[in-house]
Amino acid sequence: MIAGIVLAGGEGRRIGGDKPFVALAGRPLLAHVVERIRPQVDRLALAVRQSDARFEAFGLPQLADPADMAGPLAGLVSGLAFAAASGADWLLTVPTDAPLLPADLVGRLRAAALPETEAVVARSAGASHPTVALYRPALGGRLAAHLDATPRRSIIGFLERLVLGHADFAAFPVDPFLNLNTPDDLAAARSVLSS
């Protein structure tokens, strides 16, 4: 069983507003990500800064960030708890600003996992994408210990402590992990979707 979360807590200052609701091809950015990921997982939720009525249109549970945290690592804390409570074998994390995610993302990440693998990270053009990953739900305790032991509160810092696998994806003709952080990125995604 695969649980999934969309990391939807980004403020989107560089792109002009609340990132999940920035319009792309006439729909919120988050709608594109949910559409691509929902068929690939058994349960899906949104990791958010705080509950927001605008998310209700997606019909998904909202997992609020822990009070003393922000950013993708806060979403991972909530997501691991969600996956463990769901009895899932894996937790998939994806960002809200990657609307071109592959339709076979979960299958290829799972195929890259060995029995000892604790997390599998997507990679394209030699670059890792730490917010696009599968995690074992039992890592919740390890993550809590990591947060207690270090001030470096980043997903990369946590991944450095794990037995990792990587799944490689082609970046041509389009990188499926294109992150939309600026108006130029948004224009590039519009061009891809229109073609």
Automatic annotation (TrEMBL):
<keyword id="KW-0547">Nucleotide-binding</keyword>
<keyword id="KW-0808">Transferase</keyword>
<dbReference type="GO" id="GO:0061603">
    <property type="term" value="F:molybdenum cofactor guanylyltransferase activity"/>
</dbReference>
<protein>
    <recommendedName>
        <fullName>Molybdenum cofactor guanylyltransferase</fullName>
        <ecNumber>2.7.7.77</ecNumber>
    </recommendedName>
</protein>
<dbReference type="InterPro" id="IPR013482">
    <property type="entry name" value="Molybde_CF_guanTrfase"/>
</dbReference>
<dbReference type="GO" id="GO:0005737">
    <property type="term" value="C:cytoplasm"/>
</dbReference>
<keyword id="KW-0963">Cytoplasm</keyword>
<dbReference type="Pfam" id="PF12804">
    <property type="entry name" value="NTP_transf_3"/>
</dbReference>
<feature type="binding site">
    <location>
        <begin position="7"/>
        <end position="9"/>
    </location>
    <ligand>
        <name>GTP</name>
    </ligand>
</feature>
<dbReference type="InterPro" id="IPR029044">
    <property type="entry name" value="Nucleotide-diphossugar_trans"/>
</dbReference>
<comment type="similarity">
    <text>Belongs to the MobA family.</text>
</comment>
<keyword id="KW-0460">Magnesium</keyword>
<feature type="binding site">
    <location>
        <position position="97"/>
    </location>
    <ligand>
        <name>Mg(2+)</name>
    </ligand>
</feature>
<dbReference type="InterPro" id="IPR025877">
    <property type="entry name" value="MobA-like_NTP_Trfase"/>
</dbReference>
<feature type="binding site">
    <location>
        <position position="97"/>
    </location>
    <ligand>
        <name>GTP</name>
    </ligand>
</feature>
<dbReference type="GO" id="GO:1902758">
    <property type="term" value="P:bis(molybdopterin guanine dinucleotide)molybdenum biosynthetic process"/>
</dbReference>
<comment type="function">
    <text>Transfers a GMP moiety from GTP to Mo-molybdopterin (Mo-MPT) cofactor (Moco or molybdenum cofactor) to form Mo-molybdopterin guanine dinucleotide (Mo-MGD) cofactor.</text>
</comment>
<keyword id="KW-0548">Nucleotidyltransferase</keyword>
<keyword id="KW-0342">GTP-binding</keyword>
<dbReference type="GO" id="GO:0046872">
    <property type="term" value="F:metal ion binding"/>
</dbReference>
<feature type="domain" description="MobA-like NTP transferase">
    <location>
        <begin position="4"/>
        <end position="157"/>
    </location>
</feature>
<comment type="subunit">
    <text>Monomer.</text>
</comment>
<feature type="binding site">
    <location>
        <position position="65"/>
    </location>
    <ligand>
        <name>GTP</name>
    </ligand>
</feature>
<feature type="binding site">
    <location>
        <position position="19"/>
    </location>
    <ligand>
        <name>GTP</name>
    </ligand>
</feature>
<keyword id="KW-0479">Metal-binding</keyword>
<keyword id="KW-0501">Molybdenum cofactor biosynthesis</keyword>
<dbReference type="GO" id="GO:0005525">
    <property type="term" value="F:GTP binding"/>
</dbReference>
